[in-house]
Structures
1.
Amino acid sequence: MKLYDMRSDTVTRPSAGMRKAMYEAEVGDDVYGEDPTVNRLQEMSAEITGVEAALFVSSGSMGNLIPIFLNCGRGNELLIDWRGHVINFELSAVSAIAGSLPVPIRTDNGILEAAALEERFRPDVYYMARTRMVVEENTHNLAGGTFYPLETLKGIRELTRRKGISVHMDGARVFNASAASGADVREIAAETDTLTFCLSKGLGAPVGAMLCGSRAFITEARRVRKLLGGGMRQAGVLAAAGIYALENNVKRLPEDHENARTIARALAETKWAGIDPGSIPTNIVYVKTPRHPAVKIVQALKERGVLCGESGTHGLRFVTHLDLSKSDIAAAAEIIGHLSPA
């Protein structure tokens, strides 16, 4: 039985071309800054995002933690959407390691607005934590792959500049955001101080993320990466996958978005799922199962070859990616459409 795995876009496996690039990678000791393939990936990432420098890190979580550690710091606050990945899925590192206090702000769609942020800035008095950072997530996982309009990012940036507050973007899927919004990644990155993007999600690489920012910031970030145990040696075999991903797997992302809408339409036609198929902005589909426990539907779909994830007691998550072709999605959609939970 063929499996159609939509648990996450992290389940992708390196293609033959990517494996060849990894096999042929020229390597050196990256802790000494001597791995030419890592250096090329970092230079490429800085160029793509329009910043001065970039750093290859082992994961998006590390890429988010380092700027919080450096630019927010102990005893200070950061403002973030209440469903943000940083505070829900990164093991409280924001507090446990960086020593910062996250202040969750409730939104309907995961998108922070300048006016709502300004209301939460602390006055600079000795008995209150200082507000030092805003963390944006683009696209927003738990909000269903929503993305920031460029004008919203500009409004936040103008406010934070006035207030002397740093902006970090958890841009794990920022290339999806760019594809959906029409804004270039450079335009998006220009409205931040620091930005992290993942190589190991929609771009299809097996490992790693890129942390982007000013040259001075990246110099300090390299030190914190080492502090966190993230210094890698002959990492060029991994960096080569990232280079291949950036060169070959970005322009195809709209295919994943259309495939997600196909899955949403199939779900909408069932009697057990509650979803508006027109509400899917990128490659993440959340659906309610009001009359059936999610765990039972997940199991029933698994038995038929479709893998998805639970999202609460009565909800499912599907994520499309490059390992699923249009024909794969059509087959999975047919399985979903014929499912009749007991």
Note: Residues 253-268 form the longest helix (16 residues).
2.
Amino acid sequence: MNKFERGLLAKAKALHKTLVFPEAAFSTRTVNACKFLAKKKIAKVILIGDESALMLSHKRLDKCVIINPKTSVHKDELASELYELRKGKGLTMEEANRLILDPFYFSTMLLNKGLVDGIVAGAESPTATTLRPALQIIKAKEKGGLISSCFVMTGKNKMLGKNPAILLADCGVNISPTSEELAKICSSTIETSIKLGLNVPKVAFVSFSTLGSASGIEVEKVQKAVAIATEKHPDLIVEGEMQIDAAMVKSVAETKAPKSRLKGEANILIFPDLQSGNIAYKIMQRFGNLNAYGPIIQNLKKPVNDLSRGCTVEEIEIVAAITALQCDSKGEEKW
């Protein structure tokens, strides 16, 4: 664990948010991460599952709170609230009573109610399973707002330069964003960067072209996004379109983009589409030996974060810390 990662845990500990983990009943990695988080008081931990089964399967859970949706005193109230929220979409009370027993829906309703501060899931489940309830219930901060994601990349690699970490977006949610959507993804990622306490955001919109070296509709889409983003963030360095080496390597920047204010020191990379972003983060992770945390979900009213199904226990711990740092307020003390 490097200095940046230890710093995330320390900042989360100072906040001591209440986080819920829907996969506790079927994810040993999740439970092991939760035991660490609870023992070190990095977060107040809520495990969703049958208490007897979890206690039999795992030792030292005394510092965690275990909630079984089937026996919870909140079950009926949360089911009724779920029905009210979704009846306009055709949800019946019978279906709400069934859905509230699902650990992901139960956790999301706890979050919506303010009984927890954030959700961490995805170690054993597809992204859609984690995000569907959040998109239906928590929703974006503003009506019609764009939900996006980023990956936090950190580790020992000279490409990071002076940056303790870099953020890559969107690598997990939006398949083919428009120019306007790319600009919104940029704004959300800047916000994430600030919440994580990273260096002053320096944004590069990456492409196969550097400042007009190529042309076409793909390049024009990125150029338009840059224009929108620079107008919205005039106080920050936001540049593009730019090839990734011009954005990240000082010597290349001097040749390809000598007038660039980034000078090869970008710490936020905005990709033109999900395909390129997802490929890039996995190459950085697997061949660049960087740690990848995410997808960190952006612009939700309350934080719900996904995990890679290949995640380690340590990765779950760090994503939990990031989730705590995304919180705007503390949930009610109910446990």
Note: The chain has two domains: 3-139+301-326, 148-287.
